[in-house]
Amino acid sequence: MNLKIVDLIANILVIIGALNWGLVGLLNINLVTLLLGSVPALVQAVYIIVGIAGLYVAYLTVKKG
């Protein structure tokens, strides 16, 4: 897999995570649990994947700086 594709996917996941947290803060709506709440393992997997993407994007930011 091309590294640029991984970078793009990671950035998209971080944006989705940020938007979800914004909705939680503003309206107390968690889209992840709203959409996937009936499958707790899937909800947890989404949070883990978004968290890993956040760490990856943070690493890229520090590496470029």
What does this entry look like structurally?
The chain is mostly helical and 65 residues long. It has one domain (3-64). The protein has helices spanning 3-27, 31-36, 40-64. Helix 1 packs across helix 3. The model has no long low-confidence stretch (mean pLDDT 94).
Write the layout of secondary structure elements.
Layout lengths: L2 H25 L3 H6 L3 H25 L1
Helix pairs in contact: 1-3
Order of H and E elements: HHH
Q: Tell me the number of strands.
A: 0
- Report the span from N to C terminus: 25 Å
- What is the global morphology? globular
Q: Structural class given helices, strands, pairing?
A: mainly alpha
Mean pLDDT: 94
Give short descriptive properties of this protein:
65 residues, mainly alpha, single chain, 3 helices, 86% helix
